[in-house]
Specification:
- By secondary structure, the protein is an alpha+beta fold.
- The protein has helices at about 35-40, 75-80, 95-105, 125-130, 145-150, 165-175, 215-230, 240-250; strands at about 15, 45-50, 55-60, 65-70, 85-90, 105-115, 140, 175-180, 185-195, 200-205, 230-235, 235, 255-260.
- It has an eight-stranded mixed β-sheet with strand order 1-2-3-4-5-13-6-12, with helices on both faces. A five-stranded mixed β-sheet has the order 7-8-9-10-11, with helices on both faces.
- A hairpin with a 2-residue loop joins strand 9 and strand 10 (about 200-205).
- Helix 5 (about 145-150) crosses helix 6.
- The longest helix is centred in the last third of the chain and has 16 residues, at about 215-230.
- The protein is globular.
Length: about 260
């Protein structure tokens, strides 16, 4: 939340949390990440910068993720560490070098997989069949206030809703579906982040219920709901199985990009 003071407030690591996050938009130009969009709109997360006016370096931080752009800044890197970000995404090689130095052995360099943003790629009939492919005994239900609280209590599934302030915020701004079996939530597809033009998809399945087509069915339900609302369902894959699921739902793989993972 913004301070009541007329002056921008420095973060404990020396960076400034922007009162007007959109001031950093030019630094992130061309980076098609829903988490970045949500931060720049001021809907979720926060944008930190080297200074309030005309920033030269910025970091968009939401939940586990932090995206860095502009001139490399050790202060911004340390701000992300202080805020306990777990996935650090550098915009370029200079940022990658700096993050590697600042994080040291505590971070593991890895790759995530961008998924192409193609608004007209989805086959609605195929997605409807995917929803109907759910095995007998399972049901897909929209996540409302009751299921919000239940998702939040799941060690494996809290990220389906964890970036929203409360159930009312989720119902107002989020979107998602849960798969229930014998009254228990066993999988879900939901918005990790949301902005005016779309969402970032989060899919989680209980370890005992994987490889049953649950993620496929509830992912299809979420994509259809987005299309009905004029929202783009962004997908960013942490691994190749996530890429394979995205492709099964109609997406196409983009280029891998480097990240640093913090335990």
């Amino acid at each position: 939340m913004s301070s009541l003071s007329s002056k921008p407030q420095p973060d404990s690591a020396g960076a400034v949390r922007l009162r007007c996050p959109g001031r950093a938009a030019a630094l992130f130009a061309g980076w098609q990440e829903s988490i970045v969009f949500a931060c720049l709109e001021g809907r979720m997360g926060a944008v930190y910068a080297d200074r309030e006016a005309d920033p030269a370096a910025a970091a968009a931080l939401l939940g586990d993720f932090c995206f860095f752009a502009g001139l490399p800044s050790e202060e911004l890197a340390r701000t992300a560490l202080a805020r306990r970000a777990k996935i650090l995404a550098p915009r370029d090689r200079e940022w990658e070098t700096l993050l590697g130095r600042v994080c040291g052995p505590r971070a593991v360099r890895a790759e995530r997989y961008a998924i192409r943003r193609e608004p007209d790629v989805f086959d609605r009939e195929r997605l409807r069949r995917a929803v109907l492919s759910l095995p007998a005994g399972y049901a897909v239900l929209p996540i409302g206030e009751d299921l919000f609280g239940r998702c939040l209590s799941l060690p494996w599934g809290r990220d389906l809703v964890s970036q929203y302030r409360d159930a009312a915020d989720y119902v107002r701004n989020g979107l998602g579906f849960a798969v229930l079996y014998e009254g228990q939530i066993v999988a879900g597809a939901s918005s990790y982040a949301s902005w005016s033009g779309g969402i970032e998809i989060e899919i989680d399945t209980h370890a005992d219920f994987r490889r049953r087509g649950l993620a496929y069915a509830c992912g299809a339900a979420l994509i259809l709901a987005c299309l009905d609302r004029g929202l783009y369902p962004s997908w960013d894959a942490a691994n190749l199985p996530s890429v394979a699921l995205a492709e099964k739902l109609g997406y196409h793989r983009g280029e891998p990009y480097p990240v640093f993972l913090l335990g």
